[in-house]
Amino acid sequence: MNLGILCGGRSGEHEVSLQSAQSIFAAAERPRFSPMLVAIGKDGVWRMGSVEDLLLERDDPARIHLNPKAPAVLPIAEEGRCRLVDPATRERLWEVEVFFPIIHGTDGEDGALQGMLRMMDVPWVGAGVLGSAIGMDKDVMKRLLHYAGLPVARWVTVRGLEEGLRLYPELSQKWGLPLFVKPAGLGSSVGVNRVDNVEALRTALEEAFAYDHRALVEECVEGREIECSVLGNRLGEERPRASRPGEILPGHAFYSYEAKYLDPEGAKLIVPAEMDEKMEEQVREMAVQAFEVLECDGLARVDFFLKPDGALLVNEINTLPGFTKISMYPKLWEASGLPYPELITRLVDLGLERHRQGKALKRNYDFA
Predict the structure, then answer these.
(1) 21-45 pLDDT per residue, tens
(2) I need a surface site. Which of 50, 183, 207, 272 has the fewest CB within 10 A?
(3) Do 106 and 167 fall within a single domain?
(4) d(CA 65, CA 346)
């Protein structure tokens, strides 16, 4: 089966996506899969190739980038597949039977890419349009979790610098300091800042609004950072199930982008997390609840705060979590007895299953 690992993109998480893609490429089980990287450059040009041909500086997470000499391609829908052709000659270069999208962030994880794949009628791994959009929008995500009765940290969403500054006295008095500021629609801690005073808040909001038109101001939750991986389809033969939880011990002030992807000493991953059986079961149950409430399918990583008093809060969900060699999602499944290559195969099977379910629905209305 031709597996197109769709990576890159035009978001601030381009380099992370390339790292994830090369790990998936290496681990995809042969001979069942014939993998190929299909990358979207920062210039919007689509290119294809193997890891060796397409990725330059691939061992450096800060400098990894696409080879500008790799073949440019144009995707064309064709009977449930995606034909990749030469943009100039329309010569067929390759066919994708199923996509594994691993484009983190804007236009990759927010439903935009999933909408395109759905219009092309090509199977893909991971959440659909709605689940992807909800998971990427931290404000909508928190509102739905809160409505469903799942505990989340207190937050407000602001749509302008002056609104955020005006709320500062009230929030700092009610919630205390520090506060956290983040763009509403980004992941991987891009644009996230911890603030201790009004000037730091101004700077943080300016950065957040450089990435999005909305920003969240959140309370700081003191507690352990727990993560749990979820696998399955809400309507599938294998219902969503959760891995054993893991714990993040940040080496920085918080689990920043640098700590996640650039600094080898940026964080320590404890897999599995040290907790009693009752708490572990609570984490796993709440992870599946969040997955289902937020209309997810395929995969997601659910992040929690575990407070000193034992209270558990959902921090956020990530519908396309990192798949690098140090990423928590695959490491948690390995600790739960599902090796990385088998995990990829299972995820592809789930994507194909959801595609079959979609094909079974009526698309036309028969007039009497």
Answers:
(1) 999 999 999 999 999 999 999 999 9
(2) 50
(3) no
(4) 29
